[in-house]
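Protocol step 6 of 9: fold each sequence in the batch and record its structure tokens directly after the sequence line. For illustration, a two-sequence batch is reproduced in full.

Sequence one:
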Amino acid sequence: MVSGPARARYIFLVPWPLRPGTGVNAVVLGLATAMRDRYEPVFVVTGWDAPPPGQIWVKLPSPAGGLRSNLGFVARLVPNLLLLRKIVREAVAVNPHFICLELLPLVLLRRLRLCPKLVLSVHGADVAEALTTSGWRRAMFEWMLSSADLVVACSHALAAQVRRVSTRARIAAVWNAVGADADFAPTRPLDARYVLSVAHFVPKKAHDVLLRAFKIVERERPNLRLALIGGDGPGRQTVISLIESLALRSKVDVMVDVPHPETLRWICHAECLILPSRDEPFGIVLLEAAMARTPVVATRVGGIPEFLRDKIHGLLCDPDRPEEIARAVLTTLSDRAGTEARVRAFQDHAKAFTWERAFARYRAKANLV
């Protein structure tokens, strides 16, 4: 084991304050925990919201928001190059999570060989932005991806999307993981029986499909409730409006920005966790459900079928098919023997998805010392 002072620094960059939670935050914190015996993780926040103590704050302007922001980017380029150079000096690697044009100075440093190995980790929304943009912005995304020593995608499906942006990028798929020490509280958050979805309130998470599916389920299970937990997003008001129009106001609970330990408690006591996404780069919440021994119903999109086998670990459905999702949920609730067999199999399978294994693959693919 390497002692603390002798550990090389490993720099994480994220565009928002880093706090315990799901998604990208869970990935960064999971990898950081797994590396602590070998490297000292350092967190750098590049956005415009102040981070908590212990995280370095570097406000990097974007060149993609009009004349004013472009001028700000140019004016701050040299000072930001110098500041980033000071931060990353003598680190073993620099690993931004969530790729955006604010990272152009860092990539330039790497091209000038004034920066250690650059590992770009993509998670879905960043790649979607790169795919939908064009012109010089698309060219900048391609340049960043092709300039990195390694681009890590959280699934083979996402890696294929990265290749559509840059055929020259060196890409590796590294599956996400789940913490084995998650605290699944024994007390129920709700007296009634409920099914649950944990997903950001954005259109690709398909809350509209889920609500229509639950309307079908509710006819056969009138005492069942639906709980929706997610980070706030542009789709939340649409979700609330649809709940009203489907006359489900008394049956659906909508919760925003719930702390992660409390989210785990909701997962632990759910009759079923449902992930009806239209696109899903990976889906860590499914592994969390597996560790909590909660049955899962999900769509066969993105990276989900890479680690979740239909009828073995859970039930998979086609996206945008509320009737199919409803049938899968009803089967999960009624076929107790089959559901219990899938729960056991998925929990055993999920135990292999450790952050130590994920980071070992990072090290091997990036040839880190």
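Sequence two, same batch, same settings:
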Amino acid sequence: MHCLDKEHQCIEVLRSNLEPLNKFNQNWETYENEFDKKIHDILDEIESIGHDDHPMFYFIDPFGYSGFPMKTIKRILEYPRSELFINFMVHDINRFCEQELFKNQFIDLFGSEKFLDVNLSRNPEERQSFLLNLYCENIYSLTEAKFIMRFRINTPGKGTRPRYYLIHVSKNLKALKVMKDQMSKVSEVDYRFEAIGMDTQQMSLFDDPEKLKMIDQISFFCESHFPKNIEYGEIEDWAYVNTNGVSKTIKETLLQLEEEDKIHVERQPSQRKSTVTKGASIRSSKNN
């Protein structure tokens, strides 16, 4: 584990907290340095000892909007088993992105000058949505990322007003599934986590108010394959990427669609009718 911070006081506090936790004398290092300066030294070292095919998880938690340029994100994602979790401080980015003084920093952040297209006539919510979508689209197009999931952290007492976003970026569907499962377990805390699928600009929640939306999304996906049967695993993979669903809610949705006679589920002889799981085959009942 490598921890970076440019503030001396932060590093001292971090070291004092990590030391008693490192009971097995693991390789936990702290560095007083800026992220974008030190991370390349660490990556060079990883390559030199032949560990570049090992699993790597990077949590980038900046104060503000600078210090993690797109070119560095690109390099990290060149490794075959790397994933990123980025704190995207959308409030600060929205506030300063049009100031000429910070233009070069934002070009580094987004990897292009397209952020300048943010329209002054947009309301704050539209501006934030534009900047968030642009950043995710640039990660997808400029790096080797295959899966991007945005989690909105709401401001307590302000409904769905975002405090900031956590963006998970990976090259493996399993990485996305594990992260989304873990985030769904803590979605009831004050800073509620909400998953937003990559293929939609609309809000998708883990919570019940959006259940009807996921029913429509999965029903439409099944209809789009009619009259072919779809394996449950294919539906689950699609729903993890494109909806707010996790395994439990995806299965609940399919059971409801089956009860409403909108889909037909063919189960293996050993499978219970009270669930839908791997091995089951689903077909839309759109002609009924």
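Proceed to step 7 once all outputs are recorded. Observation for sequence two: The beta strands are 2-5, 29-32, 56-60, 82-88, 147-154, 162-170, 193-196, 230-231, 263-266, 281-284.
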